[in-house]
Amino acid sequence: MSTRFLSDDWYRVAGLRPRLLPQIAISRQRFRGKPWYVLLDRASGRSHRFTPATYALIDGMDGTRTVDALWNALADLLGDHAPTQDEVIQLLYQLHAADVLQIDALPELGEAMQRRSRQLRAKWLQSIGNPMALRFPLWDPQRFVDWSWPCVRWLFGPLGLLLWLAVVGGALLQLPQHWAELSGNLADRVLALENLLWLWLSYPVVKFCHEMGHAWAVRRGGGEVHEMGLMFLVFAPVPYVDASASAAFRDKWARIGVAGAGILVELFLAALALFVWIVVEPGATRAIAFNVMLIGGVSTIVFNANPLLRFDGYYMLSDFLEIPNLAQRSNRYLAYLVKRHAFGAEQAQSPGYQRGERLWMQFYAPVAWCYRLFVMFGIALFVAGKYFFAGVILALWSVVMMLVWPAAKGVTFVLRNAELDRHRRRAVLATFGTLAALALFAALVPLPYWTSAEGVVWVPPNAEVRAGSGGFVAGVLAAPGAAVATGDALMVLEDADLRAELATRRARVEQLDVRYALQRFDDRLQSEITRQELEAERAALAYLEQRAQELVALAGRDGFWVLPDARDLPGRHFAQGELLGYVLSGALDSVRVVVRQEDVDQVRQNTRRVRVRLIDRPRERFEARIAREVPGGSDELPAKSMTVDGGGLFATDPRDPSGLKTLVRTFQFDLELASAHADLRFGTRAHVRFEHAPAPLAVQLWRGLRQLLLSRLGV
Fold first, then answer.
1. Full-model pTM
2. What are phi and psi for residue 497, nearest 5 degrees?
3. Cα(208)–Cα(228) distance, integer angstroms
4. Which terminus, N or C, of the chain has the lesser number of Cβ atoms within 10 Å?
């Protein structure tokens, strides 16, 4: 036997008689074309994967044979393919750390109690580690699942599939006809106090059906479900079941079916709710149906089916890729890369056995971490907008559990872990040297800094035709598209109140004029009083006549009369200063850009260069300069193409009939392109970048955080 199989520490374990605990189940599965054995701990729900050679060793652990006897028998059977003594020692350590191995025939009570304590502590830490999902087990549902299974068995067969396709397919056909009514004014309807109550009551019911779908799917595959409880998802009580028994299913599609059963149940309930919502009158039943659609349709697809969150979509992806424990192994693989290549630990073993697995492991962990961080802080900001202190506490909790705690564990590993005893100096220097270099880079190295905004191709200021006085459209004097000259009358507005007041003022002036003529020679005192009244009335009359003249819109330049929505103009009311149309001529060289309130100071004071890209020619870049700022802030956009419905960034008030009123205050700037372009189309959406003086990354992050707090929380 070759000495490479031997270990200096073999004497420590050679005489032990290991035995697997009774709650352990082992199943044979295939992953990426190769056979593996999956060990499932029914007590904790955790699973572990082993190669056939390792399983041959584990299978003999019955408490009667020593480790040395087991290894020698395996070495005689497999020869050079047998695990080395060091690998066997590592395997025993892993099995014991996972609380699935018992040493010697009789269990020690103290060790059993310690194992149970470790399991409970791990579950508790897992619960508080995610402030968005606190779990509390309450009930063993296996007896109920067995009792109800004969009643629902047919739903998990061909008949159930046909029913699901018919109901969900019918709902998808009905959805486009009612989409406008369902999505209109969505934010106000969902966040209304009465609807929040219905939503809070509907959510646990829908999720209970969801979890029972998992439980029955596990029962269909021959597994058992022994834990059901409540998970407080963002403080809302949500039932959950432990369906980890499906990890022992040999067929990966059976495992995917268990993970996807809850999603299918929720989509089915959402489809039924749509039919109820269509046929019933407004009231409590319709409100409940709407919320069931919201939960089963939007919540399921956005959150539960998302593989970057540790919900059903994650387990479906993991089984589909045939990479068990994808998240944990991805973290371990990244740690392996650091230990091997940064710390020089050549003995570190990779958890990725195939190239395809390693590629997914490199990608999954960092992307999932960034997404979870984004979701948690997004929810914290949302909660803080309504309940400030609760949101702040939630945000701090998220920072501690997702940033501070992992960093502390990493530092502790570098300073104390026995695996790095031979490489401690290099590991410490690499870790703290990298952290110091990153800190210096973030604090001292200037990086490009810019503000992004959106705008539209605009016209010169004198090309806009605005209502000089408010009124209703009485007539269009120049046909849309006709050539006009400066001063030509384009449109006339009518204001009946103004006309009546003008007639009254004229009559009053005539009356005072006659009275003054009679009194000026007979009663000088009274005539002076009448003269002053006459001057006041003439001034008021002049003002009204000026307003009457402004009811006629005039061209401010030569060009062509452009009148949007010309067919809808007769009888329409325009307020004073409201845009009527444009007189365009020649090439366009202006862009009107809308800047958010939190970015306006940087744009005003620290802009060095302005670049513009148009949506219809993304490969061209135009240089521009700030020509002027529209005075004061505004809550109205210049064009519908800048709204969310038009493909832009700004959400608008659903109660505004024009569709241009924003939910936040904005500021508008007019940019002048370096050269005019005859082929630019008025109203084309543009992406604008205001380039500022370079600043270190830490300064940019701090400024961005301040802007976020000011804009969302007002602090």
1. 0.66
2. -65, -40
3. 10
4. C
161 and 227 share one domain: yes
Q: Among 89, 119, 149, give the residue marking a domain's end.
A: 119
> 492: buried, middle or exposed (CB in 10 Å: 19+, 13-18, 0-12)?
middle
Q: Which one, of 671, 148, 135, 663, lies nearest residue 456 by Cα?
A: 671
| 53 domain residue, yes or no | yes
Structural domain span for residue 337: 326-444
- The amino acid at 174: Q
Q: Is the pLDDT of residue 107 over 50?
A: no
Q: Region 69-97: what's the mean pLDDT?
A: 80
Based on the domain organization, do 61 and 182 belong to the same domain? Answer: no
**Could you say which DSSP state residue 597 is in?**
G
696 strand-pairing partners: 446
Convert the pLDDT of each residue in 276-322 to its tens digit. Answer: 988 888 888 888 888 888 888 777 777 788 888 888 888 899 888 88
Judged against a pLDDT cut of 90, whether residue 704 lies above it is answered with no
- Both 152 and 291 in one domain: the answer is yes
Using CA atoms of 147, 151, 156, 158 in order, give the dihedral in degrees to the nearest 10.
Answer: 150
Domain assignment present for 370: yes
- Answer whether 457's CB lies under 8 Å from 676's CB: no
Count of CA atoms in the C-beta half-sphere (13 A) of 48: 20
Answer positive or negative: Cα dihedral of 202, 205, 209, 210: positive
Based on the fold, state whether residues 420 and 456 are members of the same structural domain. Answer: no
3-class SS of residue 264? helix
Render pLDDT for 110-123 as a digit per residue (tens, 0 to 9): 444 455 555 555 55
Domain count, the chain: 5
Domain stop point among 96, 119, 142: 119
- Helix, strand, or coil here: 82? coil
pLDDT for the residue 444: 92
Reply yes or no on whether the pLDDT at 189 is more than 80: no
653 in the same domain as 690: yes
Whether residue 198 is found in the same domain as residue 296: yes
Q: Is residue 577 part of a domain?
A: no
**For the chain, how many residues are written?**
715
> Does residue 456 sit in the same domain as residue 545?
no
User: Do 213 and 107 share a domain, yes or no?
Assistant: no
CA-atom Rg of the chain in angstroms: 37
Angstrom distance (rounded) from CA 536 to CA 530: 10
